[in-house]
Amino acid sequence: MADTPVPPPVRALIADRIQTTEQLEILLLLFRHPDRWWSAESIGEELQITTLSAGHRLEELASGMLLDARVAESVMFRYKPVSSDLEATVGDLARLYAEVPLQITTLIRARAADPIRGFADAFRIRTRKDDG
Q1: d(CA 92, CA 75)
Q2: pLDDT at residue 130 greater than cutoff 50
Q3: Alpha-carbon distance 60 to 26, whole Å?
Q4: Which pTM was predicted?
Q5: What CA–CA distances, in Å, run from 28 to 24, 116, 128?
Q6: What secondary structure does DSSP assign to 25-92, as a single string?
Q7: pLDDT tens, 9-61?
Q8: Domain hosting residue 63, numbered range
């Protein structure tokens, strides 16, 4: 089990959309409860992280087309990948994280330690909420 290979689609998902283990934990929580809408506050309470951090991570996952968002009394999120292929890959990621968590967290940490990716990510175009 320790030598379980991580398939290319899961590696690509991590490389393109998962920046931190905190983000992974949020994604997997929402994956386990796909019909539930979550606020940053409810995620923070569930995972014992700050509401601010939860909000940032939720926005990143939503911009990575892994979550659906709606505005109610606050911004709410639920698990809803943009495609069935992406949904299947998240399922594979969840299974692998349960089987070989160290391999998955090592991939995430390697991504975070990549200085070229960090530099490129700094120039990604993101929409601002106050731009109307």
Answers
A1: 28
A2: no
A3: 11
A4: 0.82
A5: 6, 27, 26
A6: HHHHHHHHSTT--B-HHHHHHHHT--HHHHHHHHHHHHHTTSEEEEESSSEEEEE--SSHHHHHHHHH
A7: 999 999 999 999 999 999 999 999 999 999 999 999 999 999 999 999 999 99
A8: 8-119
Number of domains present in the structure of the chain: 1
Q: What are phi and psi of 117, to 5 degrees?
A: -65, -40
* Cα–Cα distance, 53 to 83 (Å, whole number): 26
pLDDT at position 6 over 90: yes
Q: Is residue 44 part of a domain?
A: yes
Give domain status of residue 112, yes or no. Answer: yes
